[in-house]
Amino acid sequence: MQVSDRDEGGAGATVQTTARDGAPHAHGDEAIVAPDPDAVAEAAGLFRAAGDPERLRLLAMLSGGERCVSELAEALGAGMPAVSQRLRVLRTEGLVSRRREGKHAFYRLADEHVADLIDSALAHAAEPDDRRHRGAHR
Question: Which of 3, 11, 97, 116 is at 20 to 30 A from 84, Cα to Cα?
Fold first, then answer.
C-alpha cells in the first residue's frame, strides 16, 4: 500500500492510499490503538476455555443461575468427573466461580460480562447463515 496524497484538513483529515489492486481508498487519520497484549492473551484464554462445545453448554446452563455439579451432570447425561473437569477449566480461566456447601460444589457464572458474552455468542450462532456471513465483509 502506498500513500499517494494527504488532505491537510486538520481534524478528520484523510490519507489517500492505493491498495495492492491499484484501487485508491481513503483512511481517517485516527490512530489505530492496539489492545494491551496481556489483556489479549487473557481474553484468548477465555475464548479457548469457552470454545469447547461441552464447556460452552455448561456456561449456557449456568446462565440460568447457580447449579450443583450433580444437577449439571444429570442434565448433560454426563459423568460427574467429566463435568467437574470441565468446570475446573472454566474456573481456572475465571469464567465461573465455585461455592462449597458440605460435600456439594455449586457453580455460577463469574459475572455479567461472562453472561453477556455467552448470550451474544449463542445469539450470533443462531442467526441465519446468510446474515452472519454478510456482516463479516462490511
Answer: 116
| Residue 40, C-alpha cell as written in the block | 489479549
Residues 55 and 86 sit within 8 Å (Cβ to Cβ): yes
Question: What is the Cα–Cα distance from 62 to 65, expressed in whole angstroms?
Answer: 5
CA pair distance 46, 116, nearest whole angstrom: 13
Taking Cα atoms as reference points, which of 95, 98, 100 lies closest to residue 110?
Answer: 95
**Span 83-102, mean pLDDT?**
97
| pLDDT of 92 strictly over 60 | yes
Beta bridge partners of 96: 109
All 3 cell numbers of residue 121?
455468542
What domains appear along the chain, each with residue ranges and CATH number?
Answer: 1-33 (no CATH), 37-129 (1.10.10.10)
Which residue type, as a one-letter code, is found at position 101?
A: E
